[in-house]
## 1
Amino acid sequence: MLTLRLYMLQRITALLMAPLVLGHLAMMIYAVQGGLSAAEILGRTQGSILWFLFYGIFVMSAAIHGAIGLRTIAHEWGGVKGVALDLVMWVIGLGLFALGARAVWAVSFA
């Protein structure tokens, strides 16, 4: 049952990330074609709750999605099982979230 829940959670996070990736790419293309500098981009994103939520949801979804995927790889290729398998998933997921959250904070509020 846990495997089915993780499978469904990974698919849900993929559905969340798809439009976020497209939005992120569109903004990058807009910024590059507009000739915006890093300072100008940060000037537009800092203090914006909208950008904080956009990238916060993106990071949370990516951390969950990636941790579940790497859990599957650790099980299928590495033969990791049981508590160790769950520990791998949690450590990777929390690590990805911490790194992403730090970046979101820097772009939004630092």
Note: The chain has one domain: 2-108.
## 2
Amino acid sequence: MTPAETRSRPKVSWLRPVVAVVGLLYLALGVAGFLTPETAEVGHETSRAVWIFSVTPVLNIVHTVVGVLGLLAATRRSGAIFYCWLLFVGFAGMTAYGILAAAFVNPEDPVNINWADNWLHGLTAAAGLALGIVAARRAR
């Protein structure tokens, strides 16, 4: 056997726990949003928040789904890498939407994204991009 044949694929052992933590954080944020009493109404009110993040049914569903997908993706390396790219694309889009929504406040906006949400989503998109690039390079 040649040395190339005896080498196994490099493992990205740190990625799955990181994806699980991201999934748990988003799941906790989504569930906490559902437990906020004012979540039943849809509209743009700054008083409805979990910590500093706005609370609406749409955002709660998105955060909960992202959390559950993160926990499911953490079971396999390929799923974790795909999840990182999904985080990047999804949250980059949400950040773009959120910047416009926060800049031009519409009282009937069902998503009700504030600037704290924009920072969270933007940092999540950047982290997804960085993790996806590093993990994909190490997996080759």
Note: The radius of gyration is 18 Å.
## 3
Amino acid sequence: MSATRVCALSELEQDLPLRVVVDDVPICVVLDSAAEVHAVGDTCTHGEVSLSEGFVEDDTVECWAHGSRFSLRTGQPLNLPAYEPVPVYVVQIDGDDVLIDPTVTKPAQ
């Protein structure tokens, strides 16, 4: 599969997560405070809660329900109650297009 356009870069607001679904895979897309675009699995590993409804600070996203924070770079949980990472997807920027292939994840770190 090839990368799919999920949104325009100009549509992303800094530190405001955006939920997209590509081939039935929910993904949380974030433009962080350093102007980097990240894409992680949108479902908190502690519960069935959408991370795109959470809060972004620096390069982390926090689940609004129970407070687990995940690294946008590695997917690793940074505090309990979550202890399993979320997948991190490779993001490509082509002009103003944000492209993601939900079958390509970054290696766990």
Note: The radius of gyration is 13 Å.
## 4
Amino acid sequence: MEKQTMGEEEINMHEEMRRAFALLSGKWKLEIMWLLNQRVYRFGELRKAIPGITQHMLTAQLRELEADGLVSRTIFAEVPPRVEYEITHKARGLGPTMEALTTWWNEYGKSVPVKPSARGRKARA
């Protein structure tokens, strides 16, 4: 499945898949997308839900996801301001992929060795 032809145009599927992988290849993007697939989150809720992520990194990853059209950000004109994040219609198309990963993990997850997490800040107790 290296190359496909669409009309006169030839598509290199390897390159196309590299582009697709790049959308979710940030350090925390899959975890963010997993959470947002469940429900709408406020920034602080996301930060608390992801042990080890820094405020700076969460902001950077959310901005990238928003720029790629996978996350939408809604600002409410309140005092103090409220900001909510949710996945877009385009990102909802990844739902079957997340369900497949869940099914795979339920079958094989126990056989995967637990590795100590050395990334980001330490989770607060």
Note: Residues 24-104 form a domain with the Arc Repressor Mutant, subunit A fold (CATH 1.10.10.10).
